[in-house]
Queue: 4 jobs
Job 1
Amino acid sequence: MSDARPSRCPHCGTELTPLGISEALFAYAHDLACFNDDCPYYLRGWAWMERQYGVKASYRYRIDGESGQASPMAVRGNAPRDVDTGAVPQEHP
């Protein structure tokens, strides 16, 4: 695991949180992710996933704990009430 990996989400600046999943159960036990529900990356994801795949899902920013590479982590459920999944929310400056 690289010591140079980001410790903050590049989309909102929130400190990344370990997933906290047992290594015995999941290959991604050392991954970090942004769990800020106001993160623009997460908020934009609801509209993108609806348009691309017709699903009620989004994604969160994730860092692979082994390689240090960033990638999306899909999450399912319902969009926060203030997110219009028919249009991509505006980026925060």
Job 2
Amino acid sequence: MALACILALSLAACSSTSRDNSRSANKYRLRFASIPQLSQGSVVILSGGPPEFWKAVRKADSLPAPVASIRVRIIDEQTGKPSPNAILGKHRLERGRLLFVPAFPLTEGANYEIEFTSQLALQHGTSSTRMTVGTRTPRTAKPTPARLTNIHPSADSLPENQLKLYLLFSQPMEQGDAFRHLKLIDETTGSEVPEPFRKVELWSEDGKRFTLWIHPGRQKTGVNLNEDIGPVLQAGHRYTLIVSQDWRSVGGSALGRDVRKAFIAGPAIRRRVTTDDWKITVPKSGSRTPLRVRFPAPLDWALLHSRVRVESGGRGIPGTIRAHDQETEWRFTPDSPWTEEKHELVIDALLEDLAGNNLKQPFEVDIRKPREKRPDVIRIPFETRR
């Protein structure tokens, strides 16, 4: 649990044989801070001090060392004395600061003694520094638990050449080590699928949506990985994607339970997407009834929100987009009632189905054959009902 810092301390060295160590510019500063990427609780940060100190710290083979050591002890509430045993943890040099990261989260609201010592060899002697600070970690409200709210595609049957999945979280999540929290189980064989994902982290700007690529090199026929290792999914097999309970939000809140998505792999889809068999249900003018577009098969959830829009007179109409019925229906609700003007459903040709096929070409193409030229944008006119 992350602990916010309520006290920042700026302290000079208590004793020194160095003539420069008493200058205010060389004061050491010692404080608690919350760095969720390093610890669930508070860490101790040491900054300030003379340049000679930091030069010596950077040269140290390991920390703690005589040149720099931070010790944290909990203070007994009854006796007011610190425990004889120091808190276990690691020293870490980061961005010009010395950190002490406890091995276990510090207790909220408890009193701690923080002791910093340094024996610094200088050109004109030895600088001996010792600081002892007593402070209390704050009590904080428990963070809202992180949740994995949705996994798309939402269907329980996916083509064996499925390309992407989208994981939607309630909070911004920790990044940089996402694949440690993901695994794919082939329930038909009872074994974990080896190397199923393309290990590139693709996040939305708010850190709440993670795009999980099933490795394209294994999904595309004739490619080395597909030939050497085999496809990730096989038609007829049942699979479970498992998202670990240990995945934490940026604020330090873990999911708390494993999240599973079970599905069966169906036949591969290797044809280009076409609008020929889309069914459009137009709304009544003067209403805010959604425009509905029905597809014969699911399309890519994220691209349905970014590659399809409604225009009138060459201008986009503001409104809300929703994907329904396992991404087989697109609905658009305008912010203002529909007018009797002519409208157009505008589709970017890069809109894809679940296997990466788009309106211009299938995901797998024969590069030896000439490509048929197709428009970048498809426009379907419609008029509202009176």
Job 3
Amino acid sequence: MPGLVTYFDPPPGVNELPERLPSPFTREPHPLARRAAAIVRAELGAAPAAWGLDAAGGGKMFGVLVVAADGGRIGFLRGFSGMLGGRWHVDGFVPPLFDDAARDAVWLDGEAEMRAMAARLDALSGGGAAAAARARLAEIDVRPQPGLVLDDAAGNARASQGVSRVASAGARG
């Protein structure tokens, strides 16, 4: 795809290029990868609102891959996780690694179902039944009672002075 490679300007010198591909498991990125990341950060930082990066929860993972074009010209590819600014495809970034049509064939219906389930959860957790259950739970008190007490982390019980739940109305739990 044209326009995916951003070439370094000025180009790196011969002494700045690694002799072989650096390991992705080293603690420090190669200086050219750092340089590419700084360029991407500066471009994104110039207009964070355009990408939704300044909104609450607007964090995003970005990555760069330094590449050499035919003829030895050095540049980098840039990518992001998920969507950026509400879009899967953004000029200058590599496209997603999935088939859009295949995703849309299942995702749109699934997304609608998830929204319906989230709305139902909100209704249940904020409705009258939830409020009544919370009120009843607040009435429950923990008091020392003779009887069974949990003896170990596995929940084995033994007879001893212990703790049991007693509702404030006096019913034993």
Job 4
Amino acid sequence: ELSNAQISFSSFAASARIRFWVASFMPSQVSRLIAVKVAAKPRRTRMLWVTQNLILAEAAKLENEIWAFESSLDQLGMDCNAQGPCDRGEPGGMVGIEPDAEDQALLARITAEVTVPRWAERCGAECAQEWNDTIGKVIGVEAPTSF
């Protein structure tokens, strides 16, 4: 019985990818992985931390499975849009190309100057700051936090 325990739940982000996946694809009741604070007996505290560690370990496995699945969908999409094979119908007949340095520079500029600022405005200042502290820091693209 945990009636004497004080438990608070908050979103857990082992990485920005897990937070994105959880927020986007999991029902809200399940999407709150645990960060637990307990004012109870040590045995109860240990049980909750063991549970939390189990959830974190399983979340890491789930993340790997999601990335593998996503990769397979990318390839399926490329195959179906190009020459095949495509198990979803006739291939589209498009020709795949690799973007050159100029294309990549244009994409980076559009991302930094258009896409991220528009997204940040929709998401809000707090959300944009979280981006800057996590993903933005990794990829070198800062979102504006005042609009």
